[in-house]
Amino acid sequence: MAEAIVAGGCFWCTEAVFRDVIGVEAVESGYIGGTVANPGYKAVCSGTTGHAEAIRIHYDPARLAYADLLDVFMATHDPTQLNGQGHDIGTQYRSAIFPLDEEQRAEAAAAIARAQAERAASVVTTIEGPATWYPAEDYHQEYWQGEGQRNPYCLAVIPPKLAKLRKSFANRVRA
Predict the structure, then answer these.
(1) What is the CATH code for 2-172?
(2) Range 147-155, long-range pairs (CB < 8 A, 24+ positions)
(3) How far apart are CA 16 and CA 151, in angstroms?
């Protein structure tokens, strides 16, 4: 089992995308990249802790390469929007990759270059870390599968991301 950590806006949205990717075994929402130990949701949302809402992905590298995982990440959020995604604005919603070793760091740089080659606007995704991971509160985990199905924000944002995933990566999506 391997691990990857990415931040691409609201963690409910990125978690929902990766739960459908073949080779992903588990996804955990959390916080990373800030200066406060054990931050909570309200503190992170205030933008004062420096943390990003992120997901930690546990995946099978025999079924999903880290490079492919990063390509899915770059395609299913807007890597050209600085410090936000859509109406979620602030450094806590930044686009970032948190590599866990030098090999992942090199792959992250290559993924950003591939994403930049596909678009005219500048990719602003950062490569950060090392940094400490803090799991989000329990009610944020598997949010789309539960409360998110009734949340107007999630209903507006997540289905288009899932549609893009299914269209662009049909061979990587669970049936």
Answers:
(1) 3.30.1060.10
(2) 148/12, 148/16, 151/12, 153/10, 154/12, 154/13, 154/16
(3) 13
13 annotated active-site: no
This prediction's pTM = 0.96
Among 10, 13, 45, 154, the active-site one is: 10
**pLDDT confidence bin for 132, thresholds 50/70/90:** very high
Mean per-residue pLDDT of the chain: 96
In this predicted structure, the answer to whether residue 139 has a pLDDT above a threshold of 90 is yes
Mean pLDDT of 62-69: 98
Report the alpha-carbon angle 37-40-44, nearest 5: 90
